[in-house]
TrEMBL record:
It comes from the Eukaryota. Keywords: Leucine-rich repeat, Membrane, Repeat, Signal, Transmembrane, Transmembrane helix. The chain crosses the membrane at residues 505-530. One of its GO terms (cellular component) is plasma membrane. This is TIR domain-containing protein. GO terms for biological process: signal transduction. PROSITE patterns: TIR. The keyword Signal applies. PANTHER family: ANTIGEN BSP, PUTATIVE-RELATED, CHAOPTIN-RELATED. InterPro entries: Leu-rich_rpt, Leu-rich_rpt_typical-subtyp, LRR_dom_sf, LRR_TM_domain-containing, TIR_dom, Toll_tir_struct_dom_sf. Belongs to the Toll-like receptor family. Residues 552-705 form the TIR domain. The lineage of its organism: Eukaryota, Metazoa, Spiralia, Lophotrochozoa, Mollusca.
């Protein structure tokens, strides 16, 4: 007997034996596996064929009348061969698994007709092959229940009260026979129907008490990771929301579906075919494949709906185009149904389109949404005989193939025709258009049916003539000029083509107008705003007066706040020694060099005019005019006013070409907000200021470059620059 069976393992874990009848020439490769998945058996089921094994049914001892506590016992001497254990207790009142069920290498459990309300933890049954809890009181099955049970081959949970089965129930294990028939499911996910890349015998959900909605919550699709689905699905006398196969074909062409279902069949016995759009989705599939993946009995192979196809055989529907076009159904989701705009939405798989008919209503705008479909069908939108004036772009325009806007007072079209590459026909007779959006040039002009009501032929619309001529527009769909009798845009091209010359003149007039506006408004503002910068630039271009250079006595005039101790120390202890003693510059320092008894302004004028440069050391409160609350005399105020006068004379002498240069050193981040702010900002913009705290700049090097060659060098000494 063993010679007539061949070892077979569907997952390299199970050790099964397959009858050699599955290996005849009648079966192909996938069919062999499909045959073995149904006819193979484990050794313990055929102990008469194997002398080295034994199968023993354990006795069950129930410890209480409620069936909560029970134990398994062995009442016979174990033979000296490999022993497989099983347990069977049918039509009892057992509620839980026996307490010591994990102590045996159990391969078979059959508790048919008991009172289990939950399966419990059976993860210890690592050798389990067959698990039957038929006709109990189960209502929920978790996807953790069978995790790790790699030897599991048969699961029968039929005739329970199961309402929920979690998705991916048999993840990572290969079960060959599953039976969930005669339960109370209301929802079923495709992950519990199709087992990808595995061959199974049957997956039964027949005779369910309620209508079942098919879901695909984990977006399982053929063509991603899964290559094939080889097995069977039995849904006899069962009401389903749709054929489950239609949910997993989003990424494949339906006509190639046979590649993904090479074996097995899917039974839907109990009623004739519903020949609506759901079955119509498979019109590209050959009939022999349909009769395998959507199997009916011979007497059920006719249509019971829709009305025009009742009692038509499925064979006739598949070959007759008229019948095929009748395989359609209404779509409710996202189908606009308002008081003034009541649309009818229909899916027609034979033409791969969704038709949205909103004609003869009182619609004033396009629907906000239209039905979508997982296969991205074309959209046919009929809005004829309504009150729509504007065509506002909607996202669904991208999949629109036909648009009917006949008999609408439409005056504006959306300028997004470049995104409507599926459009093959647009009817727009009896419109109120004065022009067209230029994006329409991306499309063929023969798409548009404008009727006898035209558009003005003028210079602005000259491009329409060029578009129609360049794209060889057909004479069947003419576009007339509304301002000429019986003239088309093509015929008016020679008259309108001189518009370009007029446009050039018009464009030049616009350019000149902008220039005039700039000269009259913008330029004066710019000159006023940057007047000090312009004065500095003009001064640098013109250079210093020749007669001024002759009178220079000092290399620089230093203006600073001698009341500020920090500034005074910087000038007297650092600046003066460095410039005068080390580099032989002559400096005029007011607090040191002013002639006693002379007026402050007289000293300022007489000495600044004979200086080559002016160096201003800005500090806080240097130019403040307010009297100090701690001072009893006006001496400080007089000195601050003197420094304000110094700044003004320095600016005037510089711009009048008496000074070679002027520079400002920011000693303590003083803000020139209250005195000569604009002039100081101009000096800053043109690089004539320096921050003493800026570590990137060496202040001594900057000053040597600013002062240049000393006016007078002592005899016998060379000039040394820092």
């Amino acid at each position: 007997m063993i010679e007539s069976n061949i070892f077979w393992s569907p997952d390299l874990t199970k050790e099964l034996w397959c009858p050699d009848e599955c290996y005849t020439n009648y079966y192909k490769s996938n069919d062999i596996d499909n045959c073995c998945s149904c006819k193979s058996f484990p050794q313990w089921q055929q102990t008469d064929m194997f002398s080295n094994i034994s199968y023993i049914l354990l006795e069950l001892e129930i410890a209480d009348v409620k069936g909560n506590n029970s134990y398994l016992i062995v009442q016979k001497t174990l033979p000296s061969v490999h022993v497989f254990f099983g347990v069977t207790h049918q039509n009892g009142f057992l509620r839980r698994m026996p307490r010591n069920i994990c102590d045996f290498g159990i391969v078979s459990v059959d508790f048919t007709g008991n009172r289990f309300t939950e399966i419990g933890n059976i993860s210890c049954l690592q050798q389990l092959d067959t698990f039957i809890l038929k006709r109990n009181k189960l209502n929920f099955v978790s996807n953790d229940t069978f995790v790790g049970l790699t030897y599991l081959r048969v699961v029968d949970l039929s005739e329970n009260m199961i309402t929920t089965i979690e998705n991916n129930l048999f993840r990572n294990i290969h079960v060959l026979n599953v039976n969930f028939g005669s339960n109370s499911l209301r929802k079923l996910d495709v992950t519990n129907i199709f087992i990808p890349n595995k061959v199974i015998c049957d997956n039964i959900y027949s005779h369910n008490k309620y209508h079942i909605d098919i879901t695909n919550e984990e977006n399982f699709q053929l063509g991603n990771v899964s290559k094939i689905v080889c097995g069977s699905f039995t849904a006899n006398n069962l009401s389903l929301s749709d054929n489950p196969i239609s949910y997993i074909c989003k990424h494949i062409e339906l006509k190639t579906i046979w590649k993904y279902f090479p074996c097995g069949d899917y039974q839907f016995y109990g009623s004739a075919y519903n020949c609506d759009c759901n079955l119509g989705l498979f019109l590209d599939v050959t009939l022999d494949v349909i009769q395998r993946i959507y199997r009916k009995r011979a007497d059920e192979s006719i249509c019971n709906s829709p009305e025009p196809l009742v009692n038509i055989t499925i064979q006739d529907v598949w070959v007759n185009d008229t019948y095929r076009n009748m395989m359609k159904c209404d779509v409710i989701d996202n189908c606009t149904k308002t008081k003034d705009c009541h649309c009818q939405c229909t899916m027609q798989p034979s033409k791969k389109r969704i038709i949205v008919d909103c004609s003869n209503q009182n619609c004033t705008r396009f629907p906000d949404v239209v039905p979508e479909f997982r296969y991205n069908f074309d959209l046919v939108l009929n809005l004829s005989n309504n009150n729509i004036m504007t065509m506002d772009f909607k996202d669904y325009f991208r999949r629109m193939s036909v648009l009917d806007l006949n008999d609408n007072p439409i005056s504006v079209l959306a300028d997004n025709f470049n995104q409507m590459d599926r459009l093959t026909e647009m009817r727009i007779q009896d419109h109120s258009l004065r022009n067209l959006p230029k994006s329409i040039q991306k499309l063929d002009p023969d798409i548009f049916r404008f009727g006898i009501k035209g558009i003005p032929c003028n210079c602005d619309n000259l491009w329409i003539s060029e578009w129609r001529i360049y794209r060889n527009a057909s004479e069947n769909w003419k576009l007339y000029c509304s301002n000429y009798d019986n003239k088309t845009f093509e015929k008016m091209f020679n008259i309108l083509k001189d518009c370009d010359d007029e446009d050039i003149v018009y464009h030049y007039l616009i350019i000149y107008a902008f220039i005039l506006v700039f000269v009259l408004i913008v330029l004066p503002f710019m000159l006023s705003h940057f007047r000090y910068e312009l004065a500095i630039l003009r001064r640098r271009i013109n250079g210093v007066r020749n007669n001024a250079q002759i009178k220079w006595k000092y290399d620089t005039y230093v203006s600073f706040d001698d009341q500020n101790e920090g500034v005074r120390e910087f000038v007297v202890l650092e600046l003066v020694p460095f410039l005068e003693r080390v580099h032989n510059y002559r400096m005029y320092v007011p607090c040191r060099d002013s002639i006693p008894g002379n007026q402050v302004e007289d000293n300022l004028i007489s000495n600044m005019k004979i200086s080559k440069t002016v160096l201003i050391i800005n500090s806080k409160s240097m130019y403040d005019s307010e009297k100090s609350e701690f001072s009893d005399n006006t001496d400080d105020d007089i000195k601050r006013k003197a420094r304000r006068v110094e700044y003004s004379y320095a600016w005037n002498y510089f711009t009048s070409r008496y000074l070679q240069d002027i520079a400002i050193i920011d000693f303590d981040h003083s803000k020139p907000n209250y005195f000569n702010r604009s002039k100081t900002k101009a000096l800053h913009r043109l690089g004539m200021t320096v921050d003493i705290c800026n570590r990137k700049i060496n202040i001594k090097t900057y000053l040597l470059k600013f002062l240049g060659r000393p006016i007078c060098l002592p005899k016998g000494r060379g000039f040394n620059v820092w």
